[in-house]
């Protein structure tokens, strides 16, 4: 089965979609087969990259089928190795429909086991910035979850009172067996400003959640930088857009550090190295640095 990463937060505006799209983009450039699944009623991830081929169905069909993913739900993006299941539930009706399902927590996990997904290496799920049934079923499907936190008092407080509370609620079902246990939660400091106050709050966040079971604050810190918004406007992964190799906090280096932390077997390997190896093997590479 693919590795499943769900981006979750009970607070909107913390950068889930941007991080999910950029992680999917760089993993695809590593040569992994990646599927992005948009489980947000505001379909931002669905619009992040251009589509070469749009499937007739999307998220709604998967949920209504009880988690059965068919090829008619999988769209193809313009990025090599990156496919998409788009969000088509803008009215939020799936949230209401799921409330009446006894198996609602298992629907997305069942989807991840569908034969149509078994050739993917990674599935990245984006969710709405609120508590709801789609968020919960996405959390239960994940091998681990990533929750972005901006280094400010409001975001840190919401992470503690909202996102961690949701995790606790889910894991109260652990008495029913391992099937009902969620994966670990990784907190990712995002949009850190270049000032002492932001750095101090980052340190406080690390100290506050250091002892929490099933919670880990990642070492990688994503700075506040215009490149992330500009890359989204250009519909490009940010590591392609901001390739300043001499700047340690450029998006190129930040995204590689994040990949290395999440996938240790890739440590010190850059996407350019993968493309060069493929070229040596006689395979072609895309002009913009994408995976062959």
Strand content: 15-25%
Q: Give the terminus-to-terminus CA distance.
A: 23 Å
Tell me the number of strands.
9
Strand line-up across the major sheet: 3-4-5-2-6-1-7-8-9
Give the helix/strand layout:
Blueprint: E1 3-7, H1 16-29, E2 34-39, E3 51-53, H2 59-64, E4 75-77, E5 82-85, H3 93-99, H4 107-112, E6 122-127, H5 133-141, E7 144-149, H6 153-171, E8 184-192, H7 196-208, E9 215-223, H8 226-234, H9 238-241, H10 251-262, H11 271-280
Parallel strand pairs: 1-6, 1-7, 2-5, 2-6, 7-8, 8-9
Antiparallel strand pairs: 3-4, 4-5
Helix pairs in contact: 1-10
What can you see in these coordinates?
The chain has one domain: Rossmann fold (3-Layer(aba) Sandwich). It is 37% helix and 17% strand. The two termini are 23 Å apart. The longest helix has 19 residues. The protein has eleven helices and nine strands. The protein is α/β, with parallel strands linked by helices. The protein is globular and about 50 Å long. A nine-stranded mixed sheet has the order 3-4-5-2-6-1-7-8-9, with helices on both faces. The C terminus is likely disordered. Strand 7, helix 6 and strand 8 form a beta-alpha-beta unit.
Brief synopsis:
This protein is of the alpha/beta class and 292 residues long.
